[in-house]
Amino acid sequence: MSAIPFPIQLLSTESIPQRQQLAFVHDFVARQISGRRFFPADPGNIRVDLEAMSLPGGLVVARGLFTPMHGVRARDLLQDGRENYIWMIQNDEREISVEGKAPVRIAPGDLVLVNEGIFHECWHGKPSSFDIVTLDRRLLAGLVPRIDMEACYVVPSTAGGVPLLAAYVETLRRHPPCSIKAGEVASRHVYDLTALVLDGFVRGGAERNERSNAAARLKLVQRDIRDRLSNPGLHIDAVARRQGVSPRYIQHLFASEGTTFTDFVRDCRLDLAFRLLQERGEAPSTITGIAYDVGFSDLSSFSRAFRQRFNVTPSEIRRLSS
Length: 322
Description:
The chain folds into two domains: 9-208, Jelly Rolls, CATH 2.60.120.10; 230-322, Homeodomain-like (Arc Repressor Mutant, subunit A), CATH 1.10.10. It contains eleven helices and twelve strands. The protein has helices at residues 18-34, 137-143, 162-174, 180-198, 210-226, 236-243, 247-255, 261-278, 287-293, 299-310, 314-321; strands at 9-12, 37-40, 48-55, 59-66, 69-73, 85-90, 94-98, 104-106, 111-115, 120-124, 128-135, 152-155. The longest helix has 19 residues, at 180-198.
């Protein structure tokens, strides 16, 4: 079995004896992982859970869970040479201060982008989960040339592109790319979507990348469909409602790929049926049962579509696999 190209790395204080947790957070998590100093609100009650995945282009997609804490990217730590951009979306309210200025209150769900090469500190008073993405400074600056004009950007959760970016990153975490090429494509999408989110917030503007925006949305729509193939009532209207777009927009996304929503759903169901027919078990499902399990409403339409796609019958596949 080949190795997973982009494994998820896990780190947790739960695996550290309690008496060593404070030192673990200070010496390893703070300095080596994040280049910050952490000051827990309750040194006797610390929890840090991190999961991270490194992708091409210097991209790191991560999620963290922290007990109440004050984190500082102190001036003396800036000598370590870190200067990448980090954006964070937190599920609870927090405050951030950049370059010694008065703290700014950040609402839940808002995106904060800050350069690691700048002194900043943040506070959160409740156990909180974060989505964290690290981006190569030079690559992001290539998409957003004037990004260095501000030390920090706060983008409201309601701003165009933020829900799509957050959903795309969540999909990447749940379903890591299965090949190097897929990882490269996914990384480019995250960079392009970040640039899209910053459009209107960076002085001078960032170039919109509608093509990458559409590609990322199409992947989310396709994932939605694959997750619900067994539902014979899988309709474009329901998918559009879940995705927060119009059915016409989804039709446009598939048309740009030279196909249609209906054809994609049918082909996904047939591909799944093909795999199920090849399964060898003590009591394999019947062909009729598989047809219904993948969302077809009757056996005849399933058999006809199956033969048209694979040029063999379901029975022949079952016989060859037995």
